[in-house]
Amino acid sequence: MLIAFPIIPWSFLWQRPQQLLSRIGRKGYPVLYVAPILKSSYYTTYPNCEEWLFPNVTLISDNLFHLWCCSETPVDIHHEPLSEKTINELTNSITPTLKDLKPNQITYLVQHPGWLPAVKHLQTLFPGKIVYDCMDQHSGFEGINPDVLQSEEELIQTADLVFATSNALLEKVSKTNSNSHLIQNGADFELFHNPQKQDLLPQCKNSKVIGYFGSIKEWFDFNALEHASKKRPGYDYVLVGTVSNEDRARFAHLPNVHFLGAVAYHQLPKYLAEFDVCTIPFLKTPLTEATNPVKLYEYLSAGKPVVSANLPELQPFKEICYLYDSTEEFLNRIDQALEEQKTSSDSLHGKRIEVARQNSWNKRVDLFIEKLQETCAVNPTADEEHRNLIKKLGALYTSELSRLRAEIFRANELEKTSLSYSTKISQTETRENVLTKQWTANIHRVKDHYEQYSIIRFIMFGIQTCQRIKNVLRRPFIKSNRQTNVPKAT
């Protein structure tokens, strides 16, 4: 089993963690994705309730599960270290699930060094190999806590296997860990290849669209954008992604600059189809010089010309891209990219698509799994282990449902002495009846379409519905008898 300690929540953005882990799950390897620690509303409202300690496991996609954890206080792993109390709370949240599942083998995939203290504590209880997926030059982020940088040094040194997304990061981690390997970012080639125009940009009045999608933060080259938009008012500049009000206001007087805000990941190809030239206008900083831009491969999947800052990771693609080193050169490269279209350069278009095809996420995952097998002796297609874990998950939540119903029955006995309890129990039972009907309907729906659903997906519906019932029945006024007996962090 692979337990991932991520850099972002699963549904926040669709990035490298989601691309890799969703594909690993589809290849048959069970994955638990630990949600970043959130403040527990149960604990805040009902501090004497023990049930808040225990996690929820929900299905994300094939063989990939979300493991929800709690802590008394909110924690931001990007900017502050985990306290001893939080480490114990996190361990108490995860331990019951691992005890119930009893996986034969565990691999801890750490995607942010802030998780290291908690992972080390868990490792003493549930032994397993540690893998670090180094995605960023953390020292390049504004406001980074020095403790995070110190944790990264320790993580690189102690990890059994390290992946790096760029050559600069590989050079850094290889100095400390000899078992380090380069696995760059990639493209969801099937999604971005051959997008179709849908006239999504009615605000663009000019015939040429210069586009960008992605984060628009401190590493973005606003000066280059401003210079180009003023010098070439006949081009429309479209930027898809979250931007601050301050940065947006800077371009309010330029009618040919359009900030569209963030859109769903699967919608990006529709905007890519509208771009005549794609851009990566980044400032040269330690952060960007260690970055392997995902958007490069997504742009190339459609065969689009790309104008980018002359970053180290772009050097291998200089024959099919337009790289710039100055604000003026940024504008000139855009002109050259547009001129390419007049010459009908089909060869460049085809080369770009082929480069993207060879740098797909599918190929990255194949290499990722290969290295996992070499170091951690994992078998991503261990069907027997997978089936056993699925059965255990189903049994776990069936058991949980029975336990909660028994507790409701016992609490019901208090009705004679507590009117408030009686009211709460009545409300709970009403909700239970509603959800039970929904559960039954789900089961019948699956049975009616049994030809279209595998037995595993049938079990997943049961697990999801049990979880929904459990969430409603987990009443804070019911005291849990379940104990974790987890050693404290030292």
Quick tags:
490 residues; alpha/beta; Rossmann fold; 3 domains; 8-stranded mixed β-sheet; 6-stranded parallel β-sheet; 17 helices; 16 strands; 45% helix; 14% strand; elongated
Short structural summary:
This protein has 490 residues and is of the alpha/beta class. It contains 17 helices and 16 strands.
Structural shape? elongated
Overall pLDDT: 80
CATH H-level superfamily title of the largest domain: Glycogen Phosphorylase B
Number of helices, where a helix is a run of at least 4 consecutive DSSP H or I residues: 17
Lateral arrangement of strands in the main beta sheet: 4-5-2-1-7-8-9-10
Helix percent band: 40-55%
CATH topology tier name of the largest domain:
Rossmann fold
Structural class: alpha/beta
How are the secondary structure elements laid out?
Elements (H helix, E strand, L loop, with lengths): L1 E4 L10 H11 L4 E4 L3 E2 L1 H5 L10 E6 L2 E5 L1 E2 L12 H18 L5 E4 L5 H10 L3 E6 L11 H13 L2 E4 L2 H8 L5 E3 L6 H4 L15 E6 L8 H10 L3 E6 L4 H6 L6 E5 L6 H5 L4 E4 L13 H8 L4 E4 L12 E3 L2 H16 L3 H13 L2 H16 L6 H30 L6 H30 L6 H19 L17
Parallel strand pairs: 1-2, 1-7, 2-5, 3-6, 7-8, 8-9, 9-10, 11-12, 11-14, 12-13, 14-15, 15-16
Antiparallel strand pairs: 4-5
